[in-house]
Amino acid sequence: MKKITLPTGGFIFAITTLALLPLLIVTACENDDVSPVIPGPLLSFNTDTEVRVVAGEAATVRPTFRPLTIAPVGTTWSWKIISVPENSRVSLTSTDQSEVTLETDIPGKYQLELTGKLGLQVIVDTLVVKAYDETTLQGQYQLLVEADGPIYDLYGYQNKLYAAGGFQTIGGVKAPGIAFYNETGWKPLGLGMEPGAYVADMIEFQGDLYVVGYFSGPQEVTSPAVSRWDGTAWNAVPGLEVLWVQNDWGPLLVNSGTSLQVYKDNLYIGGYFRGRNLGSLQDYSVLKLDGNQLTGVLRLFNSLGNSGIRLEEYNGQLVAFNQYDKSISLFDGTVWQHMDIPIDANRYSYNMNAVHYKNKLLINTKTAIPQFQEEQVISDFFIWDQDQFQEVYSPNNFMHTLEVVGEILFTGETNGIFTWDGQRWGVSKEGPKFSIDVIESFQNQLFVAGTMNEGIYQIAVWQPLD
């Protein structure tokens, strides 16, 4: 909702519009006999919320006009710099034009303010330019296999590479939802999952491979949302029921898992869960497997069919977060603590990832702010060190996956591999574009999964070039 305020003598008359016009501030007139009508054309504009550039490069910024594409004749402009990074000596190319250029000089955040005037109408808007350090990343992809559906996870177990997702075949082999690779090729795990199911995450726990996803169980056993592979056969994990509900698209499986994490010798499972065997009839976001018993331990804001719970261990704590929210929950084994990530309250969340990096928690968020009839999607990185959040200036790319190898963070997104060494981003600028959803370090190689060549689902090995 936007508000326009107009002078009407001794009081302020307010008109509210439906997200069409920015806030318009005008000064009151001395003449009391003034009708609430804007003289002449209406001035309406906004600036982009954020602009990202490589440090040392120029950022050109300008307002966007709605519903017109240009400013009304007679509009005057005034830009000014509100704040810059410490030790920066930047200045604007001009201050009285609608479009200006800012020559960034060091990484950091630069905040600008634009004032537009047309008669009695005055609009003030701000924007942020974020500059980051970058180097070119050289590497190549070696294709390993193709699948007929998405790949959501890669994992090394018993010296074999496992792949999980929503595929039915991989490498020409029927292996619904999950398969492993050995010297002779890809192999299924038993009969795999039922049609329409998928596996979202895998982890080793007490010598067995646990999997979670959207399924009522492998075809051999009934074990909704979570199941156990002992190396030769599937085993049920008791505690959940096969529950279905009907929605506009057809039947929907209630219990589904999205992530797994071992913490203090127990297995924790993130997702959306409901059942009378969990200790309560209420819905749960995190379950704990204690021995052979599942119990509910945490409820977060998530809805049926829209669960995005992720789990990570960090400095002796279990971290849980809903990828569609803007907060994290920390568990020390006894008490949960909830913390909001410092993101503008006007944004709504699309996605979130986190990983333990150099004794800190690195969080990547994807949010959006509606602007008139459009929206600006923004990706942010934050470091949390148990004391405060610190922003990491980065390209405006949401990373689908985060994987730490030694001192380097590897990330994957629509344009391929990115790296971060704590100071500088490595960005791929040449070669094929591989939209990467999964990265897994296994046996001194970096395996990636995603789509290349007109949406073909593939697994490849990424090799750096010196």
Tell me about this structure:
- Among the domains are: 2-132, Immunoglobulin-like (Sandwich); 189-307.
- It has no helices and 43 strands.
- The strands form 13 sheets. It has a five-stranded mixed sheet, with no helix packed on it. The chain has a four-stranded mixed sheet with strand order 4-10-9-7, with no helix packed on it.
- Residues 1-38 have low confidence and may be disordered.
Strand order of the largest sheet: 11-40-39-38-37
CATH architecture term of the domain at 2-132: Sandwich
| Shape by Cα distribution | globular
For CATH, the homologous superfamily of the domain at 2-132 is named as Immunoglobulins
Summarize the structure.
The protein is mainly β and 466 residues long. A hairpin with a 4-residue loop joins strand 39 and strand 40 (425-428).
Lay out the secondary structure.
Blueprint: E1 2-7, E2 12-17, E3 45-47, E4 50-54, E5 58-61, E6 63-65, E7 76-83, E8 100-103, E9 108-118, E10 121-132, E11 134-137, E12 139-147, E13 151-157, E14 160-165, E15 169-170, E16 173-174, E17 178-182, E18 185-188, E19 198-205, E20 208-214, E21 226-229, E22 234-236, E23 244-247, E24 250-253, E25 256-263, E26 266-273, E27 284-290, E28 293-298, E29 309-314, E30 317-322, E31 327-331, E32 336-340, E33 348-357, E34 360-371, E35 374-384, E36 389-392, E37 401-405, E38 408-413, E39 416-420, E40 425-428, E41 435-442, E42 445-452, E43 456-464
Parallel strand pairs: 4-10, 11-40
Antiparallel strand pairs: 1-2, 3-6, 5-8, 7-9, 9-10, 12-43, 13-14, 14-17, 15-16, 17-18, 19-20, 20-21, 21-22, 23-24, 25-26, 26-27, 27-28, 29-30, 30-31, 31-32, 33-34, 34-35, 35-36, 37-38, 38-39, 39-40, 41-42, 42-43
